[in-house]
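Risk register update: the risk of archive-format incompatibility is retired. Evidence:
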Amino acid sequence: MPSDEVHEQMPDAEPGSADAAVGGATDAAIHSAITEPRELTLSDIAQNSPFAVEAFAFLQRGLARVVEQTHGNLDDDEPHHVHGRDLCFGLRDLALEEFGPFAGNVLSHWGITQTSEFGEMVYLLVAYDVLAVSDDDRPEDFRDVYAFADAFG
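Archived output:
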């Protein structure tokens, strides 16, 4: 559609009326979409990363599992810390359970080929205030925890 058609009014519409708005949307809806913040989604985060949205969902499932294994069944909203190394092993175990012999291929398809990339994902979620880390946590905690070829080969 040519760009000049985008701003045309609908036939028989009064200028400034809801029917005259761009693309049939009301002026209020357009203003709302521009000015009101919306909740950030994993898709939004994945779009700005080398990892698939499924990788972030997998990370969240794995993290919840490791937290529960480490701290027990949690009913409170308090943050519970897990170490990067423990998370990597938990993600390995979850991948093998969910995807069996295809675990390495699935993770690779999502952009994850080494444990340090789990750390990159964690710190990306930290940057978006989805997760928090302690003062003792470092991205290096995820480096070379295990070789994917050994874990998933």
